[in-house]
Amino acid sequence: MQNGTRLAAVDLGSNSYRLEIGHVDHGQIQRAEYIKETVRQGNGLDSARNLTPEAMQRGWDTLARFAERLAGFKRSEVRAVATQTLREARNREEFLLRARTILGFGIDVISGREEARLIYLGVAHTLPHTDASAHERRLVVDIGGRSTEIILGEGLDAQAMESYRVGSVAWSMKHFAQGLFTPSAFRAAEVAAKAVLDDALSTYVPDRWDVAYGSSGTIGAVGDVLAAAGNEPGLVTREGLDWLLDRLLKAGSADRLRIDGMREDRKAVIGGGVSVLRAVFDLLEIDEMRVAQGALRHGVLYELLERDAVVADLRTATVARLASRFAADGAQARRVADTAAELFVQLEPRARGARTTSRQGRALRKLGWAAQLHEIGIHVSHSDYHKHGAYILDNTEAPGFAVNEMHWLSQLVLGHRGKLRKLEMALDDETFVMQLFALRLAVILCHARRDPDLEGLKVAVSGEGLFTIASRPEWAELYPQSAHLLREEVLAWQKTNWRVELAGGSKA
Hints:
By secondary structure, the chain is α/β, with parallel strands linked by helices. The chain has helices spanning 53-69, 84-88, 92-103, 112-126, 131-134, 168-175, 183-197, 200-203, 217-228, 238-251, 264-267, 270-283, 296-305, 307-325, 330-347, 359-373, 385-394, 403-415, 430-445, 475-478, 480-493; strands at residues 6-12, 16-25, 28-38, 78-82, 107-109, 137-143, 148-154, 157-164, 211-215, 235-237, 288-292, 458-461, 466-471, 499-504. It folds into 3 domains: 6-109, ATPase, nucleotide binding domain (Nucleotidyltransferase, domain 5), CATH 3.30.420.40; 115-120 and 127-294, Nucleotidyltransferase, domain 5 (2-Layer Sandwich); 307-452, Orthogonal Bundle (Hypothetical protein af1432). Helices cover 48% and strands 17% of the residues. Helix 4 (112-126) crosses helix 13 (296-305) and helix 10 packs antiparallel against helix 12. The longest helix is centred in the middle third of the chain and has 19 residues, at 307-325. It starts with 5 loop residues before the first strand and ends with a strand.
């Protein structure tokens, strides 16, 4: 990417929304602007795990202000990611539909492990690069509003990643609901945090890392307070945490807390944050933790810098791993993928040779991934294997993919055979429908598990929602089973707002 190119990352966190804008300078990203707004969306989930109208409005209002600053950016220069609150929210699509329109860019809801991977990438890129640091074994901890990510890594490579549903906003709401700081409340909060984080004991043991780093929110806020009190800047210690707990208990409540180095917007969630951090220190036997400057948004920026090469490789590896794990027929997957791609570029000629930063290029690549994975459900059962495959994709951790991207793939896999009514909402998206049509036809044409005869086979789509399939005159006689399946396909689409017509030899 050229020097001077602007890149922007938007982080829709549970406590705060952040906008980081940087410019590329010889492979590094230099900050140009940083905006943070406290949104507290994490405490806007009701008992049914729906975002309240007020919480949604706070998010939309913030994104509108971010959108003004992002005017003029290209789609390939911006990425927005959402974390735990929107992972949990049952009505997230209602929020996201308007949020994407307001922001003017897509918003990816990323999984917990994907968030952890990007956090590590952000931390690693902003640490000093020396010969010693290249081999430093790192423990990275990020305590957010509703989740805590813990990562082991070396250099730029994250090696073990996990996300736990415990965070400063959630724990403050649960254990310090009235803003009161008492010894019993802190004891209960720490015990509860340890119960959630207990699984970390087996993976993140002290002999697997050399230096502990803390990223973002809570840990940065604690580091600021300890530095203001005369401790070494950028360092959080057990003694420092004990001192801070004592100060919180003496204050008695968030309202009465007066402490140098702490911002007003942090006071309401400091009780939950400190209790989770103390639990992490105890469980993982940490004596001191260095405050890292890098965070999730920096990982997003650095991945934007090399997104085509790095992320495509990561996603390709993820798809290959899933296909292998579920024993998909590799030859058939490649056959269907190649056929689907050829049909798709007939429907969308701009996709042929398009860069993956373009809409058409991304659509073609996603279609290829869906084709590679369309049979993974057979590993569970041959009966309704498309449904099993869709469930797997909706419920698996997939490095490099956002949650909504995996859902898109799952819907293609779900719809590659059978009735189409189950995809009613998705059929409103023209790109999805063209991908689905190409995939269904590819599966039909490859039903005999051999390379199909595509000579003279042409597909097209009109602006009125009409797909046409034409073939050379003798095609239907040569391939009667395929011709029969195409006639069945015409009937399948009749119950949707889209139509399919056969022309030429395919009508026989």
